[in-house]
Amino acid sequence: MPAPIRLRELIRTIRTARTQAEEREMIQKECAAIRSSFREEDNTYRCRNVAKLLYMHMLGYPAHFGQLECLKLIASQKFTDKRIGYLGAMLLLDERQDVHLLMTNCIKNDLNHSTQYVQGLALCTLGCMGSSEMCRDLAGEVEKLLKTSNSYLRKKAALCAVHVIRKVPELMEMFLPATKNLLSEKNHGVLHTSVVLLTEMCERSPDMLAHFRKNEKLVPQLVRILKNLIMSGYSPEHDVSGISDPFLQVRILRLLRILGKSDDDSSEAMNDILAQVATNTETSKNVGNAILYETVLTIMDIKSESGLRVLAINILGRFLLNNDKNIRYVALTSLLKTVQTDHNAVQRHRSTIVDCLKDLDVSIKRRAMELSFALVNGNNVRGMMKELLYFLDSCDPEFKADCASGVFLAAEKYAPSKRWHIDTVMRVLTTAGSYVRDDSVPNLIQLITNSVEMHAYTVQRLYKALLDDISQQPLVQVASWCIGEYGDLLLSGQCEEEEPIQVTEDEVLDVLEGLLASNLSTPVTRGYSLTAIMKLSTRFSSVNRIKKVVSVYGSSIDVELQQRAVEYNALFKKYDHMRPALLERMPIMEKTATNGPSEIVQTNGEAEPSAVEAKHPPPVAQPANQANDLLDLLGGNDVVPVIQTSMPTKPASAGGELLDLLGDLSLSGPAPAPSVPSSQPPFLLDGLSSQPLFNDIAPAGIPPMIAYNKNGLKIDFTFERANPNPNVAVITIHATNSTESEMTEFVFQAAVPKTFQLQLLSPSSNVVPALNQGSVTQVIRVLNPQKQQLRMRIKLTYTHKGSPVQDLSEVNNFPPQSWQ
Amino acid sequence: MRFLLLFSRQGKMRLQKWFMPLTEREKKKVMRDMMMLVLARPPRSSNFLQWRDLKIVYKRYASLYFCAALEEHDNELLALEVLHRYVELLDKYFGNVCELDIIFNFEKAYFILDEFLMGGEVLETSKIAVGVSMEEADTLQEQTMEEYMSKPAY
């Protein structure tokens, strides 16, 4: 059997292959040869074969059949064998394979070998890929080597110990005694690895950290070493561009950071050296800046005095102006970390940061964008937004989504005026409309609804935007919704903010119908358009045209559209008397704060009973329309009921609230007092009875209670937990009147003890009909963070039979579940 | 450091050192991602980029890209120095190192790396010490008279 070819010859041969297929062929041939050689248990050439296998592995070919061979090499007496064997183990084996445990014994023997390079190999392998079992078995050996005077072994043992601790943190204790005099070494390798080991221990265990601070007086030792490094003369073997051992300096600074964090004494002890490093380090080369960077991070993290902090921020400011991109990037990253704590100091560099938005480097742009958003506040919001919107216009697509979300958030927090807010949101929708997150549509709709005075302006601007471009779906959806709502304002040309445009009904309907027909519109958008057209039937006079459109879509292929059209048709035909009330203007929606782009602020639609939509509507905003329509209907006249918007994790909860308002429309659960006005058309129930959802809605499980019952006025409380916050109890009051005459000007007021917070929403009406023919409902939210027993004092005022009545009462009989 | 990769402009892997346990499949994916990200960078960009939760530091030396992945608390600027030091060590050992040296003597590149880094941390900060260790270890090798590995004659 001829000797297997040498490694280098193989490499040369493989490199001559001109195609992938040729290479594969050569490799397969060689692998076959190697495999048979392994089978023959050939000791002489095992090393050569494994080496070749490793090369082929690096090219991407499978080499698992060499794993056991590596173990055999490790067990060999020859150094060359061991070297390749350990390398093979590190490349081919990992802790997932059971095979690796077989190494343990070999490593143990080699850790005690007479040759330090063999010991080194064993430590290296253990320290790179040792599994937890191996580490447990061999920790003792490592600990022994940590105490040796041989610096070559000591440094390796230190890093091996780091790995052991990472794998098996419980073993940390056993290395403690060995660390005692690690720092008194002169050898830089040992010093460096010791600092790494100490860092690892301090990071993992607060006890260790305290121990090193107090008992070992680590800080003065480190300060001394650092000082020596800076002050000492030129040392050729550690010098990097005039700086002595920057690696060690940086690691010491990092350990100092951990020691000084939240500890006044330690921080004070290191103040001087930090100032010295910060001012004396040469900044012309990268290495100096690396040290400065670490210094700045340390200064910002410990309890440094203000002068030092200012020094640090100024260093970062200088970094920002540096020509070197890496340094600018690093500066932006650090500023991002400190912007929360040292906001004002960072603000001073705002203009430089904003300039970085225009940098060509992608990484820098991203950091600059994040930092810019962090710096927006009430004072600079206009200027910053201008820059950020300009950035949004011109940036790469990968940034657009995040930038848009950031703009929305900042606008919401700091908008100086409603008009500015709407303009800003519109600008985002027109420039980056396809990248905004899904919930921006309902958020914007809510914003628009709440800016009552801006309705005319908004609808006009949106209409004009539609004329330009109908491809950006979020914009189109919002625009359709607005036109549906405020189309009358558009026609009447009432806009104060800008030049009113002249449109006719037909033009508006043309646009909306165009959306319905366009290929660019998604099904969701089409749904919006159809509903908008329908709503205009009560605002425009071209009812016939609208009827026609609606009937056409009654046979649409899209099931969603078809259903809507059919129901709208029904509205025209059978229930025309209800149409005006149903399609009335939307009430103002109560807003909960948006904390982030992922929040859904609207009442979620699934559980909504709706006159016109009986199935699950996919888009969130849509059902809110229907819900509001319904409330309009129930509330009767002009009184605007306020919907409590919450963040439902299940849609059912929102439906539950609605249920309360609707009273006994719930087909499940305990029935609250009858509160449905007698004018309730059967149509609604028809719509509802097909709703299996209501059976799924679990009531909160808290029994309702009678809070007040006097002089014919009875007030019931029903309970529910607000989903996002278990400390908030949502109580709905139902006021009914059993006397013969109605109670008008009914006002319900409540007060709670200091530890609670109360929020009273608008009542459904202020007339409690006589003879229990209806009820007034009102929602109360009580925040009870301390989970104390709920108590309430209520005051009732109303006019009965011509004379005013007022009464005060205490409510103490809250069921325990309502406040626990 | 979590891993260190060396690859050529054509996407050929020349060295891969992993400091975290990954399956073969995961390693392949990471290598593909790294090559894609780094090779796509325009010429005058910064040497840093963000990938998943790691900071990637890369530097090009002649035809080879040196690519390291750092954790959140690691110093990127220092990592550049680490990469540079490794190149210097290779240069000292091979004498004007080029990609071919690393291809034909990949095992030695690994040995040098193992004298410089361990478990992702710097093991030895002295330029001289690493060279001395390598020389002594090599002597041990030649003493055992294995012929298949011979230092290239210059």
TrEMBL record, chain A:
<keyword id="KW-0813">Transport</keyword>
<dbReference type="InterPro" id="IPR050840">
    <property type="entry name" value="Adaptor_Complx_Large_Subunit"/>
</dbReference>
<dbReference type="GO" id="GO:0030117">
    <property type="term" value="C:membrane coat"/>
</dbReference>
<dbReference type="GO" id="GO:0005794">
    <property type="term" value="C:Golgi apparatus"/>
</dbReference>
<keyword id="KW-0968">Cytoplasmic vesicle</keyword>
<protein>
    <recommendedName>
        <fullName>AP-1 complex subunit gamma</fullName>
    </recommendedName>
</protein>
<keyword id="KW-0472">Membrane</keyword>
<dbReference type="InterPro" id="IPR008152">
    <property type="entry name" value="Clathrin_a/b/g-adaptin_app_Ig"/>
</dbReference>
<feature type="domain" description="GAE">
    <location>
        <begin position="700"/>
        <end position="815"/>
    </location>
</feature>
<comment type="similarity">
    <text>Belongs to the adaptor complexes large subunit family.</text>
</comment>
<dbReference type="GO" id="GO:0016192">
    <property type="term" value="P:vesicle-mediated transport"/>
</dbReference>
<dbReference type="InterPro" id="IPR017107">
    <property type="entry name" value="AP1_complex_gsu"/>
</dbReference>
<dbReference type="GO" id="GO:0006886">
    <property type="term" value="P:intracellular protein transport"/>
</dbReference>
<keyword id="KW-0653">Protein transport</keyword>
<dbReference type="InterPro" id="IPR008153">
    <property type="entry name" value="GAE_dom"/>
</dbReference>
<dbReference type="GO" id="GO:0030659">
    <property type="term" value="C:cytoplasmic vesicle membrane"/>
</dbReference>
<dbReference type="InterPro" id="IPR002553">
    <property type="entry name" value="Clathrin/coatomer_adapt-like_N"/>
</dbReference>
<dbReference type="Pfam" id="PF01602">
    <property type="entry name" value="Adaptin_N"/>
</dbReference>
<dbReference type="Pfam" id="PF02883">
    <property type="entry name" value="Alpha_adaptinC2"/>
</dbReference>
<keyword id="KW-0333">Golgi apparatus</keyword>
UniProtKB/TrEMBL annotation, chain B:
<keyword id="KW-0333">Golgi apparatus</keyword>
<dbReference type="GO" id="GO:0006886">
    <property type="term" value="P:intracellular protein transport"/>
</dbReference>
<dbReference type="GO" id="GO:0005905">
    <property type="term" value="C:clathrin-coated pit"/>
</dbReference>
<dbReference type="InterPro" id="IPR016635">
    <property type="entry name" value="AP_complex_ssu"/>
</dbReference>
<keyword id="KW-0168">Coated pit</keyword>
<feature type="domain" description="AP complex mu/sigma subunit">
    <location>
        <begin position="1"/>
        <end position="139"/>
    </location>
</feature>
<dbReference type="InterPro" id="IPR044733">
    <property type="entry name" value="AP1_sigma"/>
</dbReference>
<protein>
    <recommendedName>
        <fullName>AP complex subunit sigma</fullName>
    </recommendedName>
</protein>
<dbReference type="InterPro" id="IPR000804">
    <property type="entry name" value="Clathrin_sm-chain_CS"/>
</dbReference>
<keyword id="KW-0653">Protein transport</keyword>
<dbReference type="GO" id="GO:0035615">
    <property type="term" value="F:clathrin adaptor activity"/>
</dbReference>
<dbReference type="GO" id="GO:0030121">
    <property type="term" value="C:AP-1 adaptor complex"/>
</dbReference>
<comment type="similarity">
    <text>Belongs to the adaptor complexes small subunit family.</text>
</comment>
<dbReference type="InterPro" id="IPR022775">
    <property type="entry name" value="AP_mu_sigma_su"/>
</dbReference>
<keyword id="KW-0472">Membrane</keyword>
<keyword id="KW-0968">Cytoplasmic vesicle</keyword>
<comment type="subunit">
    <text>Adaptor protein complex 1 (AP-1) is a heterotetramer composed of two large adaptins (gamma-type subunit AP1G1 and beta-type subunit AP1B1), a medium adaptin (mu-type subunit AP1M1 or AP1M2) and a small adaptin (sigma-type subunit AP1S1 or AP1S2 or AP1S3).</text>
</comment>
<keyword id="KW-0813">Transport</keyword>
<dbReference type="Pfam" id="PF01217">
    <property type="entry name" value="Clat_adaptor_s"/>
</dbReference>
